[in-house]
Amino acid sequence: MTLDFRRMSEDDLDRVMAIEQAIYPYPWTRGNFADSLRGEQSCWTAWNPANEMIGYCIIMPVVDEAHLLNISIAKSSQGKGLGRKLLDFAIDTSRAHGASIMLLEVRESNLVAQTLYHSLGFNNSGVRKNYYPVHGGREHAVLMELPL
Fold first, then answer.
1. Residue-by-residue DSSP string for the chain
2. Is 105 assigned a catalytic role?
3. Is residue 103 within 8 Å of 65, Cβ to Cβ?
4. What pLDDT, in 10s, does the model give residues 4-54?
5. Do the beta carbons of residue 51 and residue 18 sit within 8 Å?
6. Which of these is catalytic: 105, 132, 139, 145?
7. CA pseudo-torsion sign 32, 38, 42, 43
8. Would residue 89 be called left, alpha or beta, if left means φ above 0 and alpha means ψ between -120 and 50 degrees?
C-alpha cells in the first residue's frame, strides 16, 4: 500500500487524538501535540489511498540528532507493514535534514516495536529505569539509536 505523508496541522489533531487514545493506555495529550506543532518538531501524518489518516510521527531535531518522540499506527492498520513505511519515512526525513543519528525510547513491554526497530538497524543503547507508567507501577524504557 502506498502512503501519502503530509505535514501535521492543527486541523489533524482530532484524528491524531482518536488514534492516540485508541492505542495507548497513557496517550499524549492534545496539548502535547499542539506544543509539538508550535515548536521545532517535525510533525507528520500518514494517509492511505482512501484518504484516511492511518498514523503519524513526531521528530525533534537537536543539533545533528533526530529524536523520534512518537510514532503511531492506527489499530486497524497495524500488522500490515505500514509502521515500517512510516519509520522509513522518518529516517529518510531526518537524514535529509542533516541528522547523523536517530534516537528513541520504547516501553520495555513493546516487543513488536523493538523488533521493528532492530530490523531497521537500531541498536539498544541503554535503559531508563521506571520511566513509563503502567497499571499499578512503572516500567523501563529501552533506549535505542540508529546511525544515519
1. ---EEEE--GGGHHHHHHHHHHH-SSPPPHHHHHHHHHTT-EEEEEE-TTS-EEEEEEEEEETTEEEEEEEEE-GGGTTSSHHHHHHHHHHHHHHHTT-SEEEEEEETT-HHHHHHHHHTT-EEEEEEEEEEEETTEEEEEEEEEEE-
2. yes
3. yes
4. 999 999 999 999 999 999 999 999 999 999 999 999 899 999 999 999 999
5. no
6. 105
7. positive
8. alpha
The catalytic residue among 117, 131, 132, 145 is 117
Q: Which residue has the cell 489518516?
A: 53
Cell of 81: 507493514
- Evaluate whether 12 touches 52 at the Cβ level (below 8 Å): no
Intra-chain end-to-end CA distance of the chain, in Å:
25
Active site (annotated) includes residue 117: yes
